Each structure stands twice: as structure tokens, then as C-alpha cells.
Amino acid sequence: MDINRQRTAFRALEAAARAAGSWTGLAAICGCTPGNLSQLKKRRSPLPGHYVLKVEAATGVSRYDLRPDIFTPVACSAKKAVAAPGARVRCGDAAPSQRRP
Q: PROSITE patterns this protein is in (predicted)?
């Protein structure tokens, strides 16, 4: 991840912590220890990808802001373009052609 994306992702992580009330509250949302997030904060690292959807749902901070290297608006648009007309597609879902029966 380039430095500008990393800064943006860390600012989004800080915004998520504010929305959760504290870093401890954010850790509870993620299901990890406050120490895990303390290490991210110390290194100014982005949130690990497996926590992003939980944090977005609980805090309203966009997945695109939290991890711009993983989630892109273009990928979401492509999933919507592949979906059948009128089908509801959430960006966190697999594309319709990739779903397992």
C-alpha cells in the first residue's frame, strides 16, 4: 500500500475508534484485544482486512476508507454490472457468478 493510502486508511481507523467510543470499544467490535489495536495505532497501520466489514457495519466508516487497497468502488460497480437487472447486490457479497449453490 502506498504511503498516501496508508495515511488515509489510518485516519479512517481513528474515525472508527471515535465512532466506537474508544479504541477498547473498537476492539470489542473487531473481536480482538485492545493490545492488537494498540500495535496498529503505534505502527500507524491500517486495519486488517478480516475486521473491515465488522467495523463498517458497527461504525459506519466506509470499507473503502478503511482499506482502499482491498475494497474499491470499481469492484463494487463491476459486481453490480454482472448482476441480473433488479437484483440487489451488496458490495461485500461475491459476484453472482461466483456464488456457490
A: PROKAR_LIPOPROTEIN
> pTM for the full model?
0.68
Are 64 and 51 spatial neighbours (Cβ–Cβ below 8 Å)? no
Structural domains in the chain, sorted by start? 3-66 (1.10.260), 71-101 (no CATH)
* Burial of 16 per CB tally in 10 Å (0-12, 13-18, 19+): buried
Q: Which of 73, 66, 55 is nearest to 5 (CA)?
A: 66
Neighbours of 27 (CB within 10 A): 19
**Residue 7 corresponds to which cell in the numbers above?**
495515511
